[in-house]
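Translate sequence into structure tokens.
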Amino acid sequence: MNYKKISAVCLLVLSLCMAGVANASHAPKRVAKQHLHYISWQNAILKAHQNMNRANGPLGASVSRAIVKARANSYEENRLSDFFSKLAATRPSVFTQACRTSYTVLTRAARENKIFHHYKLTAIDVRDFCYMPKDAVAYFIEFFKGKAYPYQAAQYKRAILLTLKNPKDERNRTLSIVVDTESQVLFLNYNKPANLQYSPLLQGSYVPLAVR
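Result follows.
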């Protein structure tokens, strides 16, 4: 009889111990999940600028950043100039003007944005300025005006990727902005995932960012 009582007590103690271990194993996961948070994409860009300043030093930072920015701006300006020149020589003037208009209004909108006002705007594939529909151009402008938020945001080692999706777009096309914080260039991308996949700025792992 005593043997049965002892066995019952041992089983009870064993079950309580196992329950305690199970609860302990799950507790850290809940705590980690509760404290999981990401910085916003805006703060990530500002932090990237601050990190460059600290790495280069107060005096060297302005010179170094100016050189990097000047080279990147010059390269992209030449690339756009060549594109529009070839376009004017091979396509009707109405078509060429429409491409220039899209580029101009997007550039103006970016310059009026408090974060991107000093960035050079271009596109991974500059032909996007010709074939991007008006509703896509309008939604990019809405974003730059602060009236639309990214659908997703991610920070890579060399750049920050902002993904936009217009909720009114029945075709669910993806609009992207690759923010090169070092060269201070914005690369737009209209619904071409391959351009992002093979972009040298978006290689390696990434960290999700808060979209608001």
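Note: Residues 3-14, 16-36 have pLDDT under 50 and may be disordered.
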